[in-house]
Write a structure and sequence with these properties.
By secondary structure, this protein is an alpha+beta fold. The chain contains three helices and three strands, in the order αββααβ. The chain has helices spanning 7-12, 32-39, 47-50; strands at 16-21, 27-29, 64-69. It has a three-stranded antiparallel sheet with strand order 2-1-3, with no helix packed on it.
């Protein structure tokens, strides 16, 4: 990953991307597999690559922000550890 994330890298890393409309204040989590299928797995997926292509599905506004979040869900909660 030299110039930023690709859709493949975002999905493999368990990242999520949420778009927010600055006009109507609605937020929507992007369906990364669907976006990957539309633009290609190795297409650049940084905010400056995506924002110009986006508009709000509710109001049609083009002032969109994107928030990238890692998967923070707990891992291996049921895993048994060896030892005392």
């Amino acid at each position: 990953m030299s110039d930023g994330w690709t859709f493949r890298e975002l999905i493999e890393a368990g990242m999520s991307v949420t778009g927010g409309c600055l006009d109507c204040h609605r937020h929507q989590k992007l369906d990364l597999p669907a976006v990957r299928d539309r633009f290609g797995a190795d297409a650049p997926a940084m905010e400056w690559d995506l924002r110009p292509r986006m508009k709000c599905a509710v109001c049609g506004g083009k002032r969109i922000t994107l928030t990238y979040s890692p998967d923070t869900s707990p891992k291996d909660l049921n895993r048994k550890t060896s030892g005392p």
